[in-house]
Design goal:
The longest helix is centred in the last third of the chain and has 18 residues. The chain has a domain of about 25 residues. The chain has about 90 residues and is mainly α. The two termini are about 35 Å apart. It has 2 helices and no strands.
C-alpha cells in the first residue's frame, strides 16, 4: 500500500470521515532504465553516488494530467452540489 494512502486513511478515521471522493490511476509505474548501461549521460539526479535506476523513483506525468484530474474531481463536486444523479 502507498505510504501516503496509509497516513491519509489514518487521519480520516481520526476525524470520523467515512466517505471521500478521490481521483486515482490504476496504471503501474514504469521502472526507469539506464541509458546504454550508464546513467551519467543526461542524468537529472543530483547525487552521483548511485545510478538513477537505484534511486527512489520520481513520479512523472504528462503536463496536462494533474490539471485534468483536478477538473474531473471538480466536476464531481459540482454534481454533488446540484444533486445530479446518473440514470
Amino acid at each position: 500500500m502507498c505510504p501516503l494512502v496509509k497516513v491519509m486513511r489514518s487521519k480520516l478515521r481520526k476525524r470520523e470521515i467515512k466517505k471521500l471522493k478521490v481521483v486515482y490511476s490504476k496504471e503501474k509505474p514504469i521502472t526507469p532504465k539506464a541509458v546504454g548501461g550508464d546513467c551519467k549521460t543526461n542524468c537529472i539526479c543530483s547525487n552521483k553516488d548511485r545510478t538513477c535506476v537505484e534511486r527512489r523513483q520520481i513520479p512523472g506525468s504528462v503536463s496536462f494530467v494533474p490539471s485534468v484530474a483536478g477538473l474531473i474531481i471538480a466536476s464531481e463536486v459540482v454534481k454533488d452540489i446540484i444533486g445530479y444523479t446518473e440514470n
